[in-house]
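Risk register update: the risk of archive-format incompatibility is retired. Evidence:
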Amino acid sequence: MTMLRLSVHIHEAAYRLLAAPGDPEPTESPVKVPDPAPSAPPGLDDQVSTLIAWGKWGVLVCGVAGLLICGGQMAIGRKNRSSFAADGATGIPWVLGGLSLAATAASIVDVFFK
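Archived output:
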């Protein structure tokens, strides 16, 4: 369901809740809004795919660097710097969350366009 259709349904439900007895029922809009499937502009398929691939590669590099930094913080903060080690340990779920989001981004976006 597109956002426009959802907003129409919300509007109709609100009208029914707030309408006084005897008010006329809302009618369907005579104008049909087009809802075409997404498609890439001609000639941009390869360029956009390359840009997305570079973005994935960048996130992968940042994820590896983030995990290495977290591990370094934990190793350095082992003695007499426990807060430094704790900062490294608490950074690991954030790095893994970012990597997970990047890995599933296409699937998440695809859900909204079906």
